[in-house]
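Researcher: I'd like a candidate sequence for this fold, 302 residues long. If you have to choose between options at a position, lean toward the conservative one.
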């Protein structure tokens, strides 16, 4: 929807694999169901609409990837290659392929993690994202394709529930706070991870898309920070707004994944090369999330 607002409804073709799009998305412009590992299906839409830019968001995230590593490899690697090959062969203008904080793992500094460091992730999701960054940079060098990507932290949205990630608790906590006044969190209270509110994620993505190519020294692997907080600090911030809210902690297999990821990021490359600057911190994001979800709950939409 943000891309449609910026570039015009008919200029943005939305796709999904199976999940029904919101009525707003379905009714405001073209929409197709396609499987990103099916080159012919993707190419048909590219051809039909004379697509010049692909924003490739399809991926299996960290937690689901650990349950089904083969599927994560297939979607994340083969899906990405489909998109890159179509873009190369049809000489598209630009491809955006996000990466993730999941590229990091043991051996890298977890505080203020630099852009350039050891990348030895322990999840299949992380493995595919490291390979993906390298593959994207290869297409830039070898074929002159304009590929760009950022390492998204946990993304918090009032519109879309996350699916299958380790950072999902930071979204689910808001829904449960509004609906039930309590939440059981699947990581420990002291677990601290980098997070970003959706409006900042959209801004980061579009700012990177529009940055002059000549200014970029990096291409597919920008750290982007916005805020870092522990699960306990998030719960305390929600409690400031909903005093009766309670949170308990029952860590599961996702704790080990969270513990292997950075607690905060050094995003100076993004700041220098394309002027990245976030707008939301924990307090302003929490207020806005609770306001938006509170409204949806009142209207019976949650
Ligand atoms: N949100 C993702 C996950 O938790 C990280 O990129 O898997």
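Model: Candidate sequence:
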């Amino acid at each position: 929807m943000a891309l449609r607002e910026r570039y015009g409804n008919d200029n943005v073709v939305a796709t999904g694999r199976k999940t029904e799009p919101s009525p707003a998305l379905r009714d405001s412009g073209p929409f197709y169901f396609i499987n990103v590992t099916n080159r012919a299906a993707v190419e048909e839409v590219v051809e039909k609409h004379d697509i010049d830019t692909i924003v490739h968001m399809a991926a299996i995230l960290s937690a689901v990837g650990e349950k089904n590593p083969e599927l994560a490899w297939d979607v994340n690697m083969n899906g990405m290659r489909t998109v890159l090959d179509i873009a190369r062969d049809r000489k598209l203008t630009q491809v955006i392929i996000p990466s993730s904080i999941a590229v990091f793992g043991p051996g890298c500094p977890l505080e203020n993690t630099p852009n350039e460091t050891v990348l030895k992730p322990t999840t299949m999701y992380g493995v595919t994202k490291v390979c993906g960054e390298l593959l994207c940079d290869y297409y830039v060098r070898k074929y002159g394709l304009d590929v760009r990507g950022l390492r998204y932290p946990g993304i918090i949205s009032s519109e879309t529930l996350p699916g299958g990630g380790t950072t999902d608790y930071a979204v689910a906590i808001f829904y449960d706070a509004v609906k039930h006044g309590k939440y059981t969190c699947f990581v420990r209270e002291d677990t601290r991870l980098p997070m970003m509110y959706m409006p900042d994620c959209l801004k980061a993505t579009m700012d990177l898309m529009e940055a002059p190519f000549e200014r970029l020294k990096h291409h597919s692997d920008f750290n982007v920070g916005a805020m870092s907080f522990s699960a306990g600090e998030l719960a305390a911030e929600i409690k400031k707004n909903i005093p009766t809210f309670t949170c308990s902690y029952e860590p599961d297999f996702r704790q080990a994944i969270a513990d292997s990821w950075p607690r905060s990021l050094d995003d100076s490359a993004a700041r220098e090369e394309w002027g990245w600057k976030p707008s939301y911190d924990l307090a302003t994001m929490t207020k806005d999330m609770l306001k938006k979800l509170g409204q949806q709950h009142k209207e019976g939409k949650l």
